[in-house]
Amino acid sequence: MKFNAFLVGATLMSMTFVACSDDEPVKDNGGNNGGGDNTPVEETVSGDVDGVWTANSIVKVGGHITVPAGKSLTIEPGVQVIFDDNGVGVNHVPIEFTVDGNLYCEGTAENPILFSVAEEDRVEDNIFAGLWGGIVASESCEEMLIDHTVIEYTGGQVVEGSPAATNGVYTAGDDAYPQITTNNINGRYVITNSVLRNGWSDGIYLMGGNAIIADNIFAANGYDGAEAVNVKAGCTVDVAGNIMFSPNTNGLKLSSSGQSENRGQAKIQVYNNTILNAGWRRDGEKGGGIYVEKNALVNVINNLVVNCKFRAMTPNYTIPNNPDEGYASASVIDYNYYASGSQKSDIVYEEESGVAYAWQGYNYDHENYYTGVVDKNSIIATETDSKDPMFVNYGFNEVPLTDYVYDENWDFHVKAGSPVLEGTYPGNDIVPYFAGGLTVNGQSYESPAIQGHFGAYGAN
C-alpha cells in the first residue's frame, strides 16, 4: 500500500458526549453506527482493552487503559476516543493509553478516528494544557498502525502514579507525554495520513523500532521545548511528505542518543517534508527545522523549510562518528530549500542570537552550522531574496512567526513556475528504508518514493 498525501481537514465532529457505566470495550450492536437507531454507541472504559472498537462509536476513557501484551485492539473508522481530563485519583494523574500489545487505528479519509477530550475543552486556550497523557507503546508492543487519525490535547505531565513513570519509560516530575511514544527496537510502526496537534511535548518520540512516518500534519507540538518528530537510537525510520507547522523547537530532532551494543545506531531517511515557523517559541540558539546529533546516520534531502529560526544544525561535527557526541560522516544533509518571508518575530532574544527574521537566522554565524558540508548545495534565502515557494494558499509574508494555530484552509501545493520544483538532490543513491514495504497487521506499507521537488507537495 502506497501513501497519498492527506490534507486532513479534521473538522471533526461537533458532538455531545454522554457518560456510560459499562467498563467493557465497545461492541457492535448492529448498524453502521453501532445502534439500530443510528445513534452512536457510547461506552466508558478503563483498565485492559482489546478486541474491536466498532466504527463510529464513542469511547469515553475514564482511567488509564492498556492493551495487554499478546493482545490487539483494532479501532475502526469514525471512532471517537474521549479522555477525561480530570485524570486519575486525587492527584489527577493524566490518563495514559499504554500499548503493551498491538494497536491498529484504521481510519479513512472520509471517516477519521479522533483521540481528544470533551468538545467544550477543544479550545485555543487548551492547546498546550496537556489534558491527557498520550499513546505509549512499550518494549513489548510489536506493531502499531495510526492511519487517518487525529490525536490532540496531549502532553500531560508525568507524575508519581503515571504508568510511564512506574514502568521506567519517563521520569516523574521531569517529563511530559509525547502524543506517541515507541520503545521496542524490533517493533514495526506506521503513522500516516494523520494529524498530531496541540500537545505540550513532542508529536512522536521514537526510542526504538522500524517506522514509516508519512503524509501527516503536525501542528503546535511543544510548549517550551520539543519537536514534531524526535528519533533516538534503536530506530530505522523513513520520514516523508509531512507538514510540520510551528513546533516549539525543531520539526525534526534526529539523534542516536542511547546507542549501545544492544541498541543500534539511529538510521533515518528524511525527505520531501515542509517545515514552517519552527523554533521561534524556543529560547536560546536552538530550534528552527532540523537538528542532527550523536552519530545519527541520516539523509536529509529535498525538504522545504519556511520561515524557521535556523537551518539544519549538526552539533559537534568536529568529532565524527562518536556515539556520545559527533556527526556521522556518511550522512547527507543537503539539497534543501530555505525560504524566508518578511515577518519579524515578536519574540527576539537579544542577549542570545538576536535573530528576528528567518533570513537572518539562515545566514547567522551559528556554531552548529557545518559550513561547506551541510547544506552546501541547498537554496537559502537572504534579506533581498526571499525564495518565495509560491504556495497555493498560505500567507508566506503574513503569518506571524510565533503563530501556532493551524488553518485548515491553507494549501501547501505550489503554483506552476514555483522555484521549489527544481534543484533537488541529483542522485538516485538514496533510497527509503521501507521502499519495499513494512508489514503491520499483515498489510505491507511502502514508504513514499523520493520526489523531485522540495517539500511535501508539488504543484496541483
Automatic annotation (TrEMBL):
Q: Is Aminoacyl-tRNA synthetase found in the keyword set? A: no
Q: Which domain of life is it from?
A: Bacteria
Q: Which UniProt keywords apply?
A: Signal
Q: Lineage of this protein's species?
A: Bacteria, Pseudomonadati, Bacteroidota, Bacteroidia, Bacteroidales
Q: Which residues form the signal peptide?
A: 1-21
- Provide the protein name: Right-handed parallel beta-helix repeat-containing protein
Q: What SUPFAM superfamilies does this protein's entry cite?
A: Pectin lyase-like
